[in-house]
Specification:
Two copies of one chain form a homodimer. By secondary structure, chain A is α+β, with helices and mostly antiparallel strands. Helices cover 53% and strands 9% of the residues of chain A. Chain A has nine helices and four strands. The longest helix of chain A is centred in the middle third of the chain and has 32 residues, at 90-121.
Chain lengths: 230, 230
């Protein structure tokens, strides 16, 4: 039975932009697993109620509903054991968890650049929900939150120094080939690329070159997505 | 033949405070390798000239001189294969490199809190060297560099959020037991603890609890060091 993935979409059903869904899209491809993605909007809580919560990604495998990207990655690893490993062993799995934490902090670091672009591109029925929940989270109007983003860009790029140092030394976080750690950190980059024309990564930056290598993986799965630097 | 490690010391020969030497001290203990540590000062370049460069850690194993902590860790892993693995496999080794990069950024984040404490505790013959090289690096007098450190503490602690999230979920970065990734990131924490009375980590912080677990490992190797919160 084909796996199904509830995948965050914007006003256009093909604008898939969740950083957490993208890591699972690449994880599924890494495992050679076919998936049917179902466009889902922030307010479609009823559609994923069977998962016991209200956020995507939600993976449906037969009668199992699995939520939370780290839980899904572990489920895929433990269920599809004959497929290529997402982690690369037991120690590597433990070491990968921190990459998820790093990716979460990357989402937080990128959000002040693209929050308003997201607002403009979500489905009409999501707009109030998105503004209300996000403004409550950041404590100000989204317009004020993203103000002067050009002036903040250098500091953001500087904050990627550790990632840059690693990716100068090896092509992927996982080594010569990508692993789930790569997909976890790639998610926020693809999120920004798919929802905002704002250029976060400078041309020639080793972080961007790594992102581009991941865009090309799996027959260009991530590169073919509806995005702004296509 | 016993391994020898050139280990950065302050005015007191027992004040060992290099973040990069500490990770190797724990790596050697992890591998059950006895080591003779040799107190070394910043200006003792001649003593380690055989390593082809002028920084510690420098490990001497028979007629081999090995510099750079990442190179040393890989040397130990590849040379002492029957001892417990520092990385936990090939993929885990690749995934560990980024922890070294993260530790470097942690050194940079901690330095503005403890730079002056280091100056006061290095050997007399190192004082000019330390001030000159570090002031050139940071672009201002060390006194100005560390000014208002209390007011910067909250931001520093907030910057540890990804580490904190991971260490709430599992006892060590390497999982249930520590790996080189843990030692790499622990190094900067032990550096601060050994050279400065300034309290960086709040009591009860999961990052501090993790640091304390590492202090207790290997018979309290790191806890027994000459330090300020002993």
């Amino acid at each position: 039975m084909t796996l199904r993935l509830y995948d965050l979409a914007g006003a256009e059903p093909d604008r898939r932009f969740s950083p957490y869904c993208w890591r699972i899209r690449l994880a599924l491809a890494h495992k050679n697993l076919a998936v049917e993605t179902i466009p889902w909007r922030f307010t479609d809580k009823a559609a994923i109620a069977a998962s016991g919560q209200g956020l995507v990604p939600v993976l449906v495998d037969g009668d199992k509903w699995i939520a939370d990207s780290w839980t899904i990655a572990n489920y895929l690893e433990d269920t599809y054991r004959d497929a290529p490993s997402l982690f690369g062993g037991a120690a590597a799995r433990s070491l990968t968890r921190h990459y998820s934490s790093l990716a979460d902090s990357l989402v937080a670091a990128i959000f002040p650049f693209i929050a308003l672009d997201i607002l403009h591109r979500v489905a009409d029925r999501d707009r109030d929900y998105f503004r209300t929940t996000r403004e409550q989270r950041v404590g100000k109007p989204l317009e004020a939150f993203v103000a002067d983003r050009e002036s903040r860009l250098a500091a953001f790029r500087a904050s990627l120094a550790p990632l840059r140092a690693t990716l100068k030394a090896q092509p992927f976080l996982g080594g010569d080939e990508p692993l789930y750690a790569d997909y976890a950190v790639f998610g926020p980059m693809q999120w920004a690329r798919c929802i905002s024309p704002f250029v976060l990564l400078e041309e020639g930056d080793p972080v961007r070159l790594w992102r581009d290598r991941l865009l090309d993986r799996f027959g260009g799965l991530a590169r073919k997505a509806l995005a702004y630097d296509a």
